[in-house]
Amino acid sequence: MTTLKIDLVSDIACPWCAIGYARLQQALSSLPELNTELEWHAFELNPDKNAPKEPILPALSRKYGRSEQEMREAQANMMNIAAELGLNFTKMQQRFTCNTFDAHRLVKWAATQNKATEMKLALFDAYFGEAKDVSDPAVLAGCAEQAGLDKTEASRILTSDDYANDVSEDIANFQQAGISSVPAFIINNKYLISGAQEPAQLAQALQQIASESQ
Fold first, then answer.
1. Per residue in 152-192, pLDDT tens?
2. How far apart are alpha carbons 73 and 82 in whole angstroms?
3. Are 124 and 91 in contact (CB under 8 A)?
4. For residue 39, which of 170, 168, 143 has the smallest C-alpha distance?
5. Residue 208 burial class via C-beta count within 10 angstroms: exposed 0-12, middle 13-18, buried 19 and up
6. CA distance linking residue 182 with residue 201, whole number of Å
7. Are 127 and 95 in contact (CB under 8 A)?
8. Rounded to an integer, what distance in angstroms lies between the CA atom of residue 208 and that of residue 212?
9. Could you give all domains of the chain from N- to C-terminal order, each with its CATH number?
10. What 3-state class would DSSP assign to 195?
11. Is 0.70 surpassed by the pTM of this model?
C-alpha cells in the first residue's frame, strides 16, 4: 500500500480551504489503496493583527474590486457547495474579518495531541457556521474543547507565546516556497496541487502521484 505525505497549507479564514479539505476526503474515500499522512500548515489571509474587524461583504468587495452584491452571490455559491459536502457555512456572510495567528497556534498545539484536524474543523465550523470571532481567546478555547482538547490548557497557551515561532516559520517557509494562495496541497514534498479541486480531479492526481512514487 502506497503512503502519500500531504502538507496542506491553509487559513481558517479561507472558505475554499474548508471546501478543499472536504473534497480531499471525498477523493481519498475513492482511493482505499492509498495511505495518507496529513499535516496542516499556516497561512494568513489577514496578517495585520491590529487591523479593525469589519463585515466580510464590504471587506471582500474592496479587496477584489467587485460590488457587494457580486460578493454576496459568490458567497452564496460557496454556501451551496459547502452544504453538498456536509460543511456548515450557514453564517458565512455574517462573519467579520479577523486575524488567525492565535488560531494557528492552537492548531500547532493540537497536532502534538494528534488532534490538528479536529481543531481545524472546529475553527472552520465556528467561523463559517456560527460567524464567531476566531481571534477571540474565549472562542478559541471553546473550539479546542469541541475538538476534544483541554480548554484550560488552550486558554493558557493563548496567554503565552507558545507555538508562535512554529506558526511564523510555517508562514515564512511556504511564502519563500512560492505559495501565495490557499489551499495548497504539497504531496511528498514534490508535487503541488493548488486550489480546491473537484474530488474526481484530486483523486486522479493523487493516483498518478502514487503510481510515480512506487
1. 999 999 999 999 999 999 999 999 999 999 999 999 999 99
2. 14
3. no
4. 170
5. exposed
6. 17
7. yes
8. 6
9. 2-213 (3.40.30.10)
10. coil
11. yes
